[in-house]
Amino acid sequence: MAGRQDELAREQGVVDGLYARLDELRRATRERLAEVRRSGPSGSPQNRSERDAFATLYEDRVAQLDAVEDRLAFGRLDLDDGGTRYVGRLGLADAEHRSLLTDWRAPAATPFYRATALHPAGVRRRRHLVTTGRAVTGLEDEVLDLDALQAADGADGTTGAGTLAASTLSGEGALLASLATRRTGRMTDIVATIQSEQDRIIRADLAGALVVQGGPGTGKTAVALHRAAYLLYAHRRVLERSGVLLVGPSRAFLRYIDQVLPSLGETGVVATTVGELLPGVRANEADTPAATEIKGRLLWRDVVRRAVRARERVPARDVRFRLEGYDLVVRRRDVREAIGRARRTHKPHNEARAAFARDMLTRLVDQYRAAADADLAPEDVAMVTEDLRSHRDVRVALNLAWFPITPEKLVADLFAKPHRLAEAAPELTAGERAALRRDPDEPWTEADVPLLDEAAELLGEDGSIARAEARARATERAAELEYARSVLESTGAGGGLVDAETLASRFESTGPRLTTAERAAEDRTWTYGHVVVDEAQELSPMAWRMLVRRVPTRSMTIVGDVAQTSSPAGARSWPDALDPVLGGSWRLEELTVSYRTPAEVADAAQRMAAAAALPVSPLTAARQVDGALELSRVTPSGPARPVLVQEVVDQVAALAADFVGADGAGRVAVVAAADQVRALREAVESVLPGALGAQEAARLLAQRPEDAQVSVLDPRAAKGLEFDAVVLVEPATVAQGTGGASDLYVAMTRPTQRLVVVHEQALPTGIVELAVA
Ligand SMILES: Nc1ncnc2c1ncn2[C@@H]1O[C@H](COP(=O)(O)OP(=O)(O)OP(=O)(O)O)[C@@H](O)[C@H]1O
Questions:
Q1: In the UniProt record, which is one GO cellular component term (predicted)?
Q2: Structure pTM?
Q3: What ipTM was estimated for this complex?
Q4: Could you tell me which residues are annotated as the binding site for ATP?
Q5: Nearest-atom index, ligand 1, CA of 194
């Protein structure tokens, strides 16, 4: 025991030194930041922008240094050459630039995750440091060098190579401890216990599209986030300028994961959903399943193109009008030729319109010249052109022939005006078109967004919108100038020292300069250096098109599970989803160990999924938890309070007493078919005071949905999330919903400790293991 205490004390000394260095760096960076801020808002614009840049740099560094407080150092490698290397959340060096701590992402840290007894990679011993706050509370050693093992001093917690070779998990104690901790509403990072199959994916090449398929709880989300952090570290110069985009299935999911990247010292990632990917559009509504499926089809490429073309149209007849006493005609033939020419510019519709209008006005000026039978001086040509441009009949005729239009109007018209959709989408049946019918002012749905993006791509900038914005900017600037003049007058300043123009530029909004991430998020045409997609199986073919457009290099990390697809437009096979947009150029990796779900639960879910013919990946659970699966069948009863509901609330009360902690950790969820959620939520809320006491119930009921320790949700809302214990209500009903057996598979695989299945109806095949005769 003394040996262990000595070792702990020795490591505590090292860790104390690392924290001391961290504190020193924090102090120094804060001082520099304060100094920059003190330098005040004076100087030339150049000076100011330099000052802002330094301020941003120091602010980022302070945030980064603050974020690594928890588990700053978690590993130590003892090397064959006698040296030691500490691994932690960031790199630290002393004042003489000697390395104290190696960033987990640095090549020198790789053996911490990958070395095995078979391939020790120059490592004799790997040590996991367990810390609580700044205190070292435990050590776990793995000796990788067999010879060294014989001579090992037998320090407590040492596992032999034999055990390690037999095990596929590295740092098993630290890993299992971390998997067994109570859950909060926020995902945490896994840097201290990344497993080698995960590490290979995290550090894979930046180039190309990498698809990570894996069953529930295999760490796909964790791996995707750590990969983003790794890529930002390893390719900082490229990615800092172009940015990284992270696409998740919902705002709730993004909130669940939003602490992970900051805790890894990375904040510059744009995280969004497909529904919010277009600047200015927030589409959180859902379509009907039928409309979702139809809108996801790739045929919208052609439909949107035809809809745009329909706004470039030769009129039914010539349009006659009079200008200054002359009879002129907007001729169909001219319009046809001008449309042809404008199309040959290959510019987007709204941009090519200028060429069309110019061409038509030239033809009309020619007509005017012939009618007037006179040569026109250049200034006359300009005047006549202007008169023609502003002539009402000409304007109407040219607009009808080539209509400037926004993406929103184009798409809204398709769904609100049956003749437009019929014309643009002959591939759809009348029934399918009817399923899309919608009033023009209804809110956008998530499935609309890829169509809007497609339209924006083909329509391009609407010059009139850009002009209106320029006008607004000019007006604003004039107001600033005016204000500056009045300031100068009232203060009597001036005297050649400062002019109104300079002063006005100081009044201009001097908010923090936009970061790459902020600029990228505001720009529809921004192209990213890397795109990470989570729950990628939910994306429709049109959504894939939209994403791929944002990453011309095709550098992507795509993680998901085609057995968990619930969207009717989602993917059941990666080749089906990706080949149309990426050709064959993507590679597949698989994760096979479930870190979340106890073995008994994972096995039941796998059997059910296989029986339902879902495309399941192999899955081995990392953990065994006694009594993890409980089945509770109730007999149908009258309506007063159905026995089923009573059983659910009783189970929730018992599980809450077991798992929910007053410190905010520990979560219990009821997962049920969407149409049962409301009633069950009311029932659960009504029993909490009786079961847990008024005070505790009030605390729980006041929690925000994302932090709720007791919640009732449907499988879609639960997707990607996890809870200590789950009460699954009536699996047969869940499996009959629109997400089918996939939704049930998702629901069954949410708990980390216990799954209680409450049901009246027979259980879907597979949940109960058939006894072998
Ligand atoms: N190496 C690891 N060390 C510690 N915890 C891990 C490790 N890998 C995964 N986990 C934990 O396992 C749980 C499941 O991980 P994650 O949510 O990333 O899985 P997933 O494959 O995305 O699941 P789903 O398919 O259900 O969305 C998380 O709590 C995660 O922190």
A1: cytosol
A2: 0.86
A3: 0.99
A4: 214-221
A5: 1
